[in-house]
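Morning run. Coffee first, then this:
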Amino acid sequence: LNVTVTNASAEEVSTEVRLLQNGQPLAGRQQAVRIPANSEVAVPFDATLRQTGTILISAEATVSGDQIPADNMSHAVVSVASAVPVLLINGAAAVNPVDRETFFAALALTSPGHRTPWVQATVVDAADVTIEQIQRSSIVVLADVADLPTAIPAALRDFVSRGNGIIVCCGPNTTTQSFDRLMRESAIVPT
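And here it is:
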């Protein structure tokens, strides 16, 4: 995290910059900084947010004799999830997982060992995907998907309109016609 601190005065300023989480100072997250006249400095901070949910992160600079102390604070709202939920929709059903279009993506997104994952990947065949699975995800990957159940294209349109992401990967099952139909039905790409 880099905090930009600006000195608009004609003299060099010394200040202390600290980070706060939900209005409370973070232990060990403060730095003394010297800022040349009429310039700005990027102050790097290393912070790990362990609490999930919506968190207010603030940076505060303390300058003695400052005539306008209200402009010495900046805020950002961060949404922290335990893991980003990714739905991998497999377009090539197969008994052997290695033969699925989603196999390597699922492998790449799996946390090594027993570490806490940053991504929680769920694999489902295209014929079996549900609206609820889409709603629980932040990202949907369509891997060589030629056809989807009737209600799913509209669910994908709503999914994207809420700011979520879709990745479309074409493959041997994807034809020009199936791609055009999916894009037209879901309206995720203007046609």
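The two ends are 39 Å apart (CA to CA). Good start to the day.
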